[in-house]
Amino acid sequence: MLLSGLRLLPLLPLAWVGGVDGRAVDTVAAAKVESRQQQNIVTWDDKSLMINGERLMIFSAEVHPFRLPVTSLWLDVLQKIKAMGYTCVSFYIDWFLLEGKQGEFRAEGIFDLEPFFEAAKQAGLYLLARPGPYINAEVAGGGFPGWLQRVQGRLRTNDAAYLEATANYSANIGRIIAEAQITNGGPVILYQPENEYQSYLEGYEFPDYEYWENVDRQFRDAGIVVPSINNEAHMNAYITTSTPASVDIYGHDSYPLGFDCFNPTVWPEDGLPTDWLELNNQIAPDSPYALVEFQGGGFQPPGGAGFEACSQLLNHEFERVIYKNNYAVGATIFNIYMTFGGTNWGNLGHAEGYSSYDYGAQITEERLVYREKYSEMKLQANFFHVSPAYLVADRFNSSLEWTDNEAITVTPAITDTTKFYIARHTQYDSTETVPYRLKVQTVGFGDLTVPQLSDSLYLTRRDSKIHVSDYLVGDKNLVYSTAEIFTWKKYSDKTVLVVYGGPDEHHELAVEGRGSDDDEVVEGSDVTVEQRDGYTILGWAVSPERKVVRVHGDLYIYLLERNEAYNFWVPPEPAQVGTSSVIVKAGYLIRTVEVDDATLSFVGDVNATTTIEVIGGAPEKLETLNFNGRSLPFEQDERGVVTATVEFRKPRFKLPSCSRLKWKKIDALPELQPDYSDDAWTVADLKETPNTAFPDLRTPTSLYAGDYGYHTRTLIYRGHFTANGGESTFFIQTQGGMAFGSSVWLDDKFIGSFVGDSTWESTNANSTYELPALEKGRQYVFTVVIDNMGLNNNYVIPEEKQKIPRGILDYELEGHPKSDISWKLTGNLGGENYLDKDRGPLNEGGLFIERQGYHLPVAPTKYWDYSKGPTEGLTKPGIVYYATSFDLNLPTGYDIPISFEFVNTTAVAYRAQIFVNGYQFGTYVNHIGPQSRYPVPQGILNYHGTNYLGVTLWAMEEGGAKVEGFEIRVGTVTATGYGNIEMAPTPAWKRREGAY
Ligand code: IPT
User: Where is the Beta-galactosidase domain (predicted)?
Assistant: First the structure.
């Protein structure tokens, strides 16, 4: 790959701090300082981070590579982020996926981070590494592997057993991160240990500095030398730059609009933070203002409003008002959680979520960039590329000094030259249109009240603006601009400036110096040009008709309506952190540009026939214009502007209709058959539980699945007993997390289900079932199926919620001694000795068909029954598995997002899982929702070959259940210049020794 050569050139030797366990805190602290001195590439002061001495706005996107298990798609996502103008990506690492079995760290194939580092370098993005070990992140266990349920120490504390449990992971992942640091030519510039070390139970002594030092030491020992950053949930200053255990850079997170996506137009009353500047000045006056996680969308629980609703609550207006408030405070490390959410495939999510982790983010789960919030961020992030003064401006609180209207609050950020004025509604969620005048300071002309050519500026509903004065555009000085700046570039023969405003707003911009005879309105109309003493003012009403004005000879100013500005791009060159010198109007997406002598080459995506217009940066006499490797006819005018058309041809392709596919089916609950043998199952024989957080068993032996190594999805229990004839009812308490369910059979007779709902009370269930008359002396067996929705996060210390068990907590067979039932259980085949190393430790659960590997491609379906597929369904409670395969042959050069959708659903209780080429890419709970459409990326789906599709259906109620409709859907199709997408490994079914 492009940069692999570079990687071999370490800029500085790595600093290895010897790994001696049990050092006292003070020596550790000393060692840390020593290690920090090993690198001088990433430095900082109170204003900003510096890379090789150069200040940089860390405009960062949160992305979790593990939520997109196709390594060759990582560059796609990162390019889309880079195209917005970001400079950095922050990523969590999920320990659970990498050390599913204690002592066996595995980061290969889809879990390999090397392709992610490569993609970051190729996209030109720095990385903030967040390895935990605790990450939260709505993943199962908050990133803690299931086996931590058995660790004899309190999680996230200094207990030796916990720290020892983390050591292997931290050493391995620490080394991987260390090798990818900028000191070794890699992209990693920052690292965050722990996560939101913050919430604790009363009585617990908090913070535990020694604990923090130990977490940090593990990573430092592995060779991490870049600065550490903290991510506090609230500005409590537990671990700061000056506490006994410390970080290099203090930072915090914030989700100010919350997560109530059911009311996507309602902003909470006190949603706008206003005390941050003061707090940060107290807490960490020596480190740059860092928002390590800032709301970019919202997570959603089962039964929630869904992510489209979240994308409305956390939309472009939210970004304008709330993010610009962060700039007012002076954030120069700004990470947006999530920018691309992805998918909780293969059971990696926690119980309070579901398969989609779209998050309502700027980039959709299908990697599409059509949300307006994506375009809005492109405007904001690009501004910082051309406004270096922002990074050094002095910060002040807002005051009434700057405006004549109390309904508007203006916060200044001031340097000797450039000044920024961030204006917002005083009542931050106002939907009114409010007039205001603004006072600006200028070096040359004193204080000015603007606008000067009209009565007022206007701030419309839920908007905020960054006005400027004494703003340098190359060798020109903008005395002021009320219109917001998107970008500018200075070329040898001209300077191009692009500004924008909202529909119908009046804006003004003043350029220092006298106008020249050449000044003209090059395009559009209704621009007032007025000469004042020492500067020229342009005034205009924003309209869809764009205006281009030439002033002072060679300054071309594009006055755009914001919607038009959305079509402009300042593409990067491959592997460059900055932007190129090209400014281009195009459509859907421009990924990169390369300028080579007289050739200009763009790589991008279009979803319609698109005019491209290069308004700056084209070679003076352009000879060749390439778009996605194809040369286009073009025109170049006397100003050097290049125009061309990219044709979009709708691709023609056919997708199969699920109902017409040939399906096979197999009983997925053979346990109900009289001759079924559970000889090979795990005997539940632990008289005590190793689970220190829930030590009091209510059953004669532990029935906690985690005690026996089963942590993922379906759990099945078998309880054998010989009846005495006096049994009447069966009480059972099952636990699987939010929206879980359980079903019970006695031999092959259905006894009842807890179908589940999305309330907090229903994370476990007490069920009492009537039994039929039992025959004295006959042997019976209960079969209990439980849906484990994923282990809990572990937010509060030392509450240990990760250890909340899954399985059977209690039971009572009325009329029968409790201890006279002998239990066995199973989860995924092998438990922590999971079989499928390629798809990882969580992908398969404990259903018969999963234990046999029938969810994998080319399962031995020969002797299975023919079926109509999931729409056939079951007439009584049970579990069935449907499998089919289909070929795809989709045209190359297109991004064709495919998803599977459950349609026409009714209220019947059933649960389903979708497997695509062996990857579980959807868990569907029909009666709870909200998700019914499940995107599956190319690379999991084979777009040029055969695909194996499997669906499990668990009918939970009398009368059974069927899937009313199951369809393949296509999302927004684009013609793309993105390269080849390689398949994730999809090893096929093999007979599994000892599978039961
Ligand atoms: C913050 C966590 O740091 C992050 O891991 C994720 O869980 C995020 O929330 C929500 O998606 S915690 C914050 C909401 C208090």
Answer: 390-568
